[in-house]
Design a protein that fits this description.
The protein has 451 residues and is mainly β. Strand 20 and strand 21 form a beta hairpin. It is globular and about 65 Å long. It holds the Pfam family Cu-oxidase_3. This is Multicopper oxidase family protein. Keywords: Signal.
Length: 451
């Protein structure tokens, strides 16, 4: 898209320039809101050539799926890969049968088959979707997309930018480099070479001068922890990982790990041609640039809070989870093969699973009960810990001051221990893992069972 109309006070303001390429889903079958076709496709990321990616509906960025809070959405997934896949709706508190984890919650979608997902989002905010099979390759080659759940009463922003952050493992000619290497898999993960927003390197998006702008940054990367800053000292954090915060705070910097999302509120500069740039470690990621409008004296709208269940802290049960490596194994065998039991959760590496062969859960939780998860990172590397089907309430850390907030993905720093409350109100077997994909694939995954 290179043209967008912003409506304010009945006045249509034409905005011309480069805007996020928000791709509509293909025409769905009757009875479905969206149809996602999963298939190989060549995409253009670098000027030097095309990239043999995996795609949703034939391109990248993937379709931005928009749902509405408290209203059902139906999505048909068609698998045209030569391997099985599933789709996980990251951050969504939905029934287990719709969670998209092979064998644990649904059969894999085999080549040529379809699977129909249907759920009603209880929460509004910025979420995303991706496969949960052959994750290093399927996510790394492009099967990632934004799922935006609009509020029941939509806030009055003048522009809403959906920006997927992804580093591509590609050369200057567009061909792929290694998506993983043994050395990096046992450290911080294998970084990509080309930093993009919606598949473009440092794009510039036009916004109305003086307008109230919602900037949604979604980390759909396999590896990279983005350290987000802004050239606008008045930029406000208004939501973390899909959940609005009661009192927005000024953005100084915010560590946004794989799987995490950050919603920012910005009042665009009032003069035409002025810019605000969002950076990662002082490297420009994306810039917004003002164009003429008739907007004046705008303020940031207030986001309604999501209906996250309040934890019963007085009657909560504490459970400790230690995240570390297996000191008894060699990460790489003499023949060069990777040992997939390196990372551990409570000294267990993920055993893998198949039909009829599901490992024991890391913990069994009683439906409706509150738990205090003590999340202890006993390593020198960052680990974003993601829980399916639920939302944590982060209470405190041994490394920094915490204002309690809701999230589905808790970033643990080096030797950091975080206390997070969880109300086990969603029955099922829920995946629980590090969202650095190479860590997940080398042991850093398990599940909790709620019944």
């Amino acid at each position: 898209m290179n043209r967008r109309t912003f409506i304010k006070s009945g006045i249509a303001i034409a905005i011309v320039g480069t805007l996020p390429r928000l791709v509509l889903a293909a025409q769905p079958s009757e009875g479905f809101d969206y149809e996602l076709i999963v298939a190989p496709a060549d995409v253009n990321i670098v000027p030097g050539g095309s990239t043999p990616a995996l795609s949703f509906n034939g391109g990248y960025p993937s379709p931005v799926i928009r749902a509405k809070q408290h209203q059902p959405i139906r999505i048909r997934v068609v698998n045209r890969l030569n391997e099985p896949t599933t789709i996980h709706w990251h951050g969504m508190r939905i029934p287990i049968g719709m969670d998209g984890v092979p064998f644990l919650s649904q059969p894999p979608i085999m080549p040529g088959d379809t699977f129909d997902y249907e759920f009603t989002p209880p929460d509004a905010g910025s979420f995303w979707y991706h496969p949960h099979m052959n994750s290093i390759e399927q996510l790394g080659k492009g099967l990632v997309g934004a799922l935006i759940v609009d509020e029941a009463e939509k806030p009055d922003f003048d522009a809403d930018l959906v920006l997927c952050m992804k580093n591509w493992h590609i050369k200057d000619d567009g061909s792929f480099t290694a998506l993983t290497t043994p050395k990096n898999a046992f450290r911080m993960g294998t970084p990509g070479r080309v930093m993009t927003i919606n598949g473009e390197m440092h794009p510039i998006y036009d916004v109305p001068a003086g307008g109230a702008i919602r900037v949604r940054l979604l980390n759909v990367d396999n590896t990279l922890v983005y350290d987000v800053t802004s050239t606008d000292s008045n930029a406000q954090i208004i939501a973390i990982d899909g959940n609005p915060i009661a009192e927005p705070v000024a953005l100084t910097n915010h560590m946004t790990a794989p799987g995490m999302r950050l919603d920012l509120g910005v009042i665009a500069p009032s003069k035409v041609g002025e810019t605000v740039t969002f950076k990662h470690k002082n490297k420009p990621m994306v810039t917004i640039k003002t164009v003429a409008s008739q907007l004046e004296n705008r303020r940031l709208p207030t986001l309604p809070l999501n209906p996250i269940p309040a934890p019963d802290l007085e009657n909560a049960e504490a459970i400790k989870f230690a995240f570390e490596w297996n000191a008894n194994i060699t990460p790489i065998e003499k023949d060069g093969k990777i040992n997939y039991n390196f990372w551990t959760m409570n000294r267990r590496s993920w055993e893998g699973m198949s039909k009829g062969n599901i490992p024991a859960p890391l913990a069994k939780l009683e439906l409706g009960k509150t738990y205090l998860f003590e999340l202890a990172n006993l390593t020198q590397y960052h680990h974003p810990i993601h829980i399916h089907g639920h939302t944590f309430t982060v209470l405190k850390s041994n490394k920094k001051a915490i204002t309690p907030f809701h999230t589905d993905t808790v970033l643990l720093g080096q030797n950091e221990t975080v206390i997070a409350a969880l109300v086990a109100d969603n029955p099922g077997r829920w995946m629980y893992h590090c969202h650095i994909i190479e860590h997940l694939k080398t042991g850093f995954m398990g599940y909790v069972e709620v019944s």
